[in-house]
Design goal:
The chain is α+β, with helices and mostly antiparallel strands. It is built from ten helices and nine strands. The radius of gyration is 20 Å and the shape is globular. It holds the Pfam family APH.
Length: about 325
Amino acid sequence: MPADLDLARLTPWLATVVGDGAVEATRYPGGQSNPTYRVDMGTRSFVLRRKPFGALLPSAHAIEREYALIAALHPTGYPVPRPVALCEDADVIGAPFYLMERVAGRTIWDGAMPDATPDERRAHYEAMVDALAALHAIDPVAVGLGGYGKPGNYFERQVARWTRQYRASQTDDLPDVERLIEWLPRTVPPQDRVSIVHGDYRIDNLIFAPDGPRVAAVLDWELSTLGDPLADFTYLLMNWGTEPDGRSGIKGLAGAESGIPTIEEVVARYCTATGRADVPGLDWYFAYNLFRLTGIVQGIKQRVRDGNAASAQAAAMAERVPMLASMAWDFARKAGA
């Protein structure tokens, strides 16, 4: 049983929500931000996500928003887990949390999919692109999410947000970050569409069906909002330029031999599905996405220092801040900085 989940206090709450029964729980590995647990009660299986304990950055770890999002999407048939209940009373287990049904299936941790055939790789990547396009086709107002994000240019808001988040958790002076903070707001591209944006859409945040290349569930909606769908899509495309290190990076692997679609094929498929003529120059978007990731990882670094990081891998990830900032500035220079 996880030491950081108080089953003696959780079990009575579960009884009021899903009924009585013996409770078993295990913590999932990973989860740099919100600790996540599998909760079993007989034949029923759930997933619990909670905020970290301790002091938190403003607007971070917004599990209430995650819950509202999946509660709105689930009735549409979009692949998200069925929401069960949200508990905003921190007295129950020490932090607010929510419960959802566990979706059976496969998590692909390594984007290279080393054990798959070329046809299997292609089919899974095409399913991943199609599920993102389907998300971006949902009308937020029609599903009750018209107020889920603020009006105005999404990238302008996000650059300002991640600048604030970075400043709130800053531990070092990094010239590349300072250059980005000055350059990005001046060069924000125009926005012509608004959609639900996942915020962290990559292969290991999906559950695929047990028996084929179908996306059974999209997970980890903590960073979701309303905004420019190109934020999600260009974030996904970054995997084609990220070294294959057993995570989502597939740089140099795409093509007929592996079966992984090329970046050009992925762009064409997404554009066809969403009615776009093309995707504009990617370098600005890659610089922005890496700057945003710098802010996220800087927050993890601060939580490591404060002693309330949610994962044993957090300390190693925290050391990536200077590298991410350098990569972001390299793309900024390619974009004309």
